[in-house]
What we know:
- This protein has one helix at about 50-60.
- It has about 80 residues and is mostly loops.
- The protein has one domain (about 1-80).
- The longest helix is centred in the middle third of the chain and has 11 residues, at about 50-60.
Amino acid sequence: MGYRCLCCGYLTLPVPDREAIGYICPVCFWENDVSLKKHTHKSACNHGMTLQEGEKNFIAFGACQKRLAKYVREPKEEEIPPYYA
Length: 85
């Protein structure tokens, strides 16, 4: 089982988020930014977008940014946390 992506919540990270430097989630396309301290801080890895903005975009568009929606995929069964089922 993977570790939770901070943007979409699916278990797509191969290691805990503090260790997943630069990992891009295949479900939401958020690039994991280990330097973020709060959801409202701008992420240099994500072109200045905040994690809060990425989460809202994922809900609205299925990706952290609308323009990236063409690159994402549905979560695999094993990536869906028990509380999502």
